[in-house]
Target: PTS sugar transporter subunit IIB
Amino acid sequence: MKKILLLCAAGMSTSMVVKKMRESAAQQGLDIHIEAHGVETIQDYLAEYDLFLLGPQIRFKKDELQKLADEVNKKVEVIDMMDYGMMKGDKILKDALVLLG
Model:
């Protein structure tokens, strides 16, 4: 099972994106665990998750967070602003799957 963690500042819109991504994964029969947490909690989840996606509003933290993730060979990527704003869970999931390889 792959595990994806979305990181955000406040959480409301990100939790809605997670819901859409979960729905898309279920429709495709994919075994993927997706959650969202505040960006300040990344160190608690580094070992547990395979990919970290940032809400566009905190894209400025990408380099800082990637340095932490590099220590455990994980990726940090920013969710496309248009996809995020339009809650395109299926597209965000598709992009995440590409990143996971």
